[in-house]
Amino acid sequence: MQKESNNGHRTVDIIHRVGIKAPLQKVYEALSTVEGIAGWWTEQTSGTSEIGKTIVVQFFSLEGKELGSMNMEVKALEPGKKVHWVFTDGPAEWIGTDAIFNLHQEEDYTIVFFAHRNWREEVEFTAHCSMKWGIFMLSLKELVETGKGRPSPNDIKIDNWN
């Protein structure tokens, strides 16, 4: 999805929507804590989940080879409503982009509207990351609904980049 940024340049966003059959607070905890993130995104998660602090995520192959890492500054933590990170280190395409998780309740579901916003351009890596974010959103759903997610390195592999 392309849109115009504040400075007049076009940017690209990745967006996903997933419904999780669980209380809003349980989903928020999975998104807003280091332990929660380690349960659905990557087992190698460290840092401090507080506004202005940094969370570090590292990705490894099943054989233990490092595939990449990212640092993200926590920009917003609104209990039951929103988690917002800005990427400060990692792949060049990610630096300065935002990951935003907006939450709301619909019947028995907590709806997660996820956006990875402000990519400078649409490249092949954007498509890879969109697919992987979808996989990790399903891992989040599994974690909250069943107690066990599929964080890296045990995530679904989609191509030769992971």
Structure characteristics:
single chain; 162 residues; alpha+beta
Would you mind describing this structure in some detail?
Strands 1-2-8-7-6-5-4-3 form an 8-stranded antiparallel sheet. It has helices spanning 24-32, 34-40, 124-146, and strands spanning 2-4, 10-20, 44-47, 54-60, 66-78, 82-89, 98-106, 109-119. It is 24% helix and 41% strand. It has 3 helices and 8 strands.
Supply the helix-strand structural class.
Answer: alpha+beta
* Percent in strands: 35-45%
Order of helices and strands: EEHHEEEEEEH
Strand order of the largest sheet: 1-2-8-7-6-5-4-3
Strand count, sense and barrel status of the largest sheet are:
8 strands, antiparallel
**Helical residues, percent:** 10-25%
Number of helices: 3
Count all strands and give the number.
Answer: 8
Instruction: Report how far apart the termini are.
Output: 24 Å
Shape: globular
Measured on Cα atoms, how large is the radius of gyration?
15 Å
Overall average pLDDT: 94
Low-confidence stretches: none
In short:
The chain has 162 residues and is of the alpha+beta class. The chain has three helices and eight strands; from the N terminus they run E-E-H-H-E-E-E-E-E-E-H.
Task: Give the topology, please.
Layout: E1 2-4, E2 10-20, H1 24-32, H2 34-40, E3 44-47, E4 54-60, E5 66-78, E6 82-89, E7 98-106, E8 109-119, H3 124-146
Antiparallel strand pairs: 1-2, 2-8, 3-4, 4-5, 5-6, 6-7, 7-8
Helix pairs in contact: 1-2, 1-3
